[in-house]
C-alpha cells in the first residue's frame, strides 16, 4: 500500500481502517427487485476516487461482489454495502454520492442500518477531513441520519474503538413492524505490535507472490472453503478477500507489516455459535502484542450467545484481557474486548 | 446554590456534578490505625477552598462524616473519601494536597482505587481548567495514577457519562494478594428535564424550609432509616445528605430546579439485591424527562446480580431505555443505562 510521509519526515502508514457498512431497504417493503450490484462498475470506481482509493482486484459469486482496493476492501451484496479503507482515505466523503447511486440504480429508498467504526488512529493528525477526530466524523454522519448514536468503547486514553450506528427507540413505529431480521454477525480482530518474523512474510523480499504469503502465513487455513483473492504490495503489505459460495459469507485480512507501525485486521461474517477457535487460529497466525476484538450479533444469529462466552474468556493463551464491554442496541448486541500479552 | 452568568449574559448553573471517590490503603497491609477522619477539619476546609466550595452543614455517626457543601457534598469514612461538587468547582485540583494530608494525618500510603466520573456538562465552556474537557481531566489524573483507564459510556453525540478508574492487569502481583474485598456498591441516577411542578418545591417561594421540601417532595421516604441533613438554598436549590448508623451507608440528593437547566442527582451505597424499587421511587418523586443510571457492584456485593436484572428492564413505567452498556473491571462490574420519556 502507498506510504505517507509523517510531519517529522519518517515514513508512516496508517493501517487502521475506517469501516462503513450500510444496509438498505425500501419504505414500501417491496425490495425484491432491488440490488446494489446493479450500480455500474464505472460508477463505483468514480465513487472510490472520492474516497481516494481504487479497485485492484475483483471476485464474485451469486451472493456478493468482493473488491480488493489499493487501500483495503469493498463488498457489495444485494442490500449490504461494506467499504473498509485504511491509510488517509476519506470513506465518509462518499456518503452523498453513494445514496444517489443507490436510489438511481439499485432501487432502495431507505437506509435500514449503518455501522461506521474504527480503532483509534496511531496518527490522527495525518488524516484528512472529517477523519482527524471522531467528533467530526459523527457531525457529518449526523447530517445524514436521524437516529445516529455514537459510542467509544475501550479506554479513551489508551486503546479504543469508535462506533456510529442507528439506535432508534423501541417505540418508533416506523421501525417496529419489520418482522424477524435475517441472521447477521460480524467478528473483527484488530491487531497491533505484531511479531516481526510473521510480518516479514508479507514483504516482496520474503514472498514472491500473494499466494505464497497466503500459504506460508497460514491464512488459507483460517476459515475453510473460501474462494481467495489475495494481493501482495510492493515492497510490502498484503490484502485478501475470501468469499464462500455456500452461504454468501466473506472474510477479509489486511496487513501493514512495517515494524514501527505493524497492524493486521481480520474480519468475517461467518456464522458460528463460538468464535473461540477462529480467534485462537488468527492469534496463533499473526502473534500480535495486543488486539481489539469486536463481535456484533443480532437476535437470530447463531452467534447470539457469544457475549456470554467471551465474558468467561479472560485470556487467550498468553493474551490477557484488560477490558470487556457490552452494548445492547435495538437490533444488535455488541461485545468489545481488549487483550494484550503480559507484560504489555 | 450560587448562580453563574453564561457568556451570553443568561443566568446558568451547571447542576451536573464531578464525583471523585478514592479508597486508601497501606502497602504493608497494616492500616487498622489509619483513618481519614483524623485529618483536621480546618485542613479539609483549606482543601475545599482549592475546589472553590465550602462546608455549610455537617452530620456524622461512628462510620462516616457527611458534609453538605455550598456545591454538593463530601463524605469521609475511615478509608473512603467522596467529593461530589457541581457548578464550576475544580475537585481535581485538590488531588495533590489531598494526598499530602492523607499521608500526614491519616496514615495511608497507597491509593487502592479511584473513581472519577461525571455526566457530560450542559455548558463545558463555562468550566475551569481541567474540567472543560474529559481529555484534560484524564491527562491530570494520569499524572497521578499508573493504571488509570478512561471510559465514555453512552452516546458521545447525545447523553454520555465519563469514568476514570484504576484497572490494573490480573497479572499485577502487587494488587493480586489483597484477599476478599469488602462488599461495595453505588447507585447513581442523574436526571434532567424534570417536572417544573416538582422542581417548584425546591424554591424558597414554595417551601419555607429544607425540612418542608424534604417532606413535601417525598425525599424522606426514598431510603428509610437515614439521619437527614438537608439545606434549601436562596432563592432556590436543594441539597441533602443521609447517613445510616446501622450499616454506615449514605445517600445524597442535589436539586437544580430552574426550568431552563433543571437537574437532580441521587446517589447511594445502600446494599440491595435489587434496585428496581428504589429507582422507581426516585423516578416517581422527581419525574425526569430523561436520566442516566449507573450501578457499580463488586463481586462480594449483594447487588452483584443487578446487571442481569437491569438487562431485562427495558422500561421503568413511561421511561424507555435507549442504551445499556456493561463494563467488567478488575474489582467492579459497572452497568450504565440511559432512559427517556417517549417521545423524548
Automatic annotation (TrEMBL), chains A, B:
The active site is at residues 72, 86, 239, 254. Pathway: Amine and polyamine biosynthesis; S-adenosylmethioninamine biosynthesis; S-adenosylmethioninamine from S-adenosyl-L-methionine: step 1/1. The record marks 71-72 as: Cleavage (non-hydrolytic). InterPro entries: AdoMetDC-like (IPR048283), S-AdoMet_decarboxylase_euk (IPR001985), S-AdoMet_deCO2ase_core (IPR016067), S-AdoMet_deCO2ase_CS (IPR018166). It catalyses: S-adenosyl-L-methionine + H(+) = S-adenosyl 3-(methylsulfanyl)propylamine + CO2. GO terms for molecular function: adenosylmethionine decarboxylase activity. Its cofactor is pyruvate. Coiled coil: none annotated. One of its GO terms (biological process) is spermine biosynthetic process. Keywords: Autocatalytic cleavage, Decarboxylase, Lyase, Polyamine biosynthesis, Pyruvate, S-adenosyl-L-methionine, Schiff base, Spermidine biosynthesis, Zymogen. The modification Pyruvic acid (Ser) is found at residue 72. Binds 1 pyruvoyl group covalently per subunit. It is an enzyme of class 4 (lyase). Its EC number is 4.1.1.50. It comes from the Eukaryota. SUPFAM superfamilies: S-adenosylmethionine decarboxylase. Substrate binds at residues 13, 71, 233, 258. PROSITE patterns: ADOMETDC (PS01336). GO terms for cellular component: cytosol. NCBIfam families: SAM_DCase. Belongs to the eukaryotic AdoMetDC family. This is S-adenosylmethionine decarboxylase proenzyme. It comes from Cryptotermes secundus.
Amino acid at each position: 500500500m502507498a506510504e505517507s510521509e509523517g510531519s517529522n519526515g519518517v515514513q508512516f502508514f496508517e493501517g487502521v481502517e475506517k469501516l462503513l457498512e450500510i444496509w438498505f431497504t425500501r419504505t414500501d417493503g417491496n425490495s425484491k427487485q432491488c440490488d446494489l450490484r446493479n450500480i455500474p462498475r464505472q460508477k463505483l470506481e468514480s465513487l472510490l476516487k472520492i474516497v481516494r482509493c481504487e479497485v485492484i482486484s475483483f471476485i464474485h459469486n451469486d451472493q456478493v461482489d468482493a473488491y480488493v482496493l489499493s487501500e483495503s476492501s469493498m463488498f457489495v451484496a444485494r442490500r449490504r454495502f461494506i467499504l473498509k479503507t485504511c491509510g488517509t482515505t476519506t470513506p465518509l466523503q462518499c456518503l452523498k454520492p453513494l445514496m444517489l447511486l443507490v436510489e438511481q440504480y439499485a432501487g432502495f429508498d431507505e437506509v435500514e442500518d449503518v455501522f461506521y467504526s474504527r480503532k483509534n488512529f496511531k496518527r490522527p493528525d495525518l488524516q484528512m477531513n472529517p477523519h482527524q477526530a471522531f467528533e467530526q466524523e459523527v457531525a457529518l454522519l449526523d447530517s445524514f441520519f436521524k437516529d445516529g448514536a455514537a459510542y467509544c468503547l475501550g479506554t479513551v486514553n489508551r486503546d479504543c474503538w469508535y462506533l456510529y450506528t442507528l439506535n432508534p427507540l423501541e417505540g418508533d413505529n416506523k421501525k417496529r413492524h419489520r418482522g424477524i431480521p435475517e441472521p447477521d454477525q460480524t467478528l473483527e480482530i484488530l491487531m497491533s505490535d505484531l511479531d516481526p518474523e510473521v510480518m516479514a512474510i508479507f514483504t516482496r523480499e520474503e514472498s514472491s507472490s500473494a499466494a505464497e504469503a497466503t500459504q506460508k502465513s497460514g491464512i488459507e487455513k483460517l476459515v475453510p472453503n473460501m474462494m481467495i483473492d489475495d494481493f501482495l504490495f510492493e515492497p510490502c503489505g498484503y490484502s485478501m478477500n475470501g468469499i464462500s459460495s455456500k452461504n454468501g459469507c466473506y472474510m477479509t485480512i489486511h496487513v501493514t507489516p512495517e515494524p514501527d507501525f505493524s497492524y493486521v485486521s481480520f474480519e468475517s461474517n461467518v456464522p458460528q455459535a463460538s468464535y473461540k477457535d477462529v480467534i485462537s487460529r488468527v492469534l496463533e497466525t499473526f502473534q500480535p502484542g495486543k488486539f481489539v476484538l469486536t463481535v456484533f450479533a443480532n437476535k437470530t444469529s447463531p452467534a447470539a450467545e457469544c457475549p456470554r462466552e467471551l465474558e468467561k474468556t479472560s485470556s487467550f493463551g498468553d493474551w490477557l484481557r484488560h477490558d470487556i464491554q457490552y452494548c445492547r442496541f435495538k437490533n444488535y448486541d455488541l461485545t468489545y474486548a481488549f487483550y494484550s500479552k503480559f507484560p504489555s
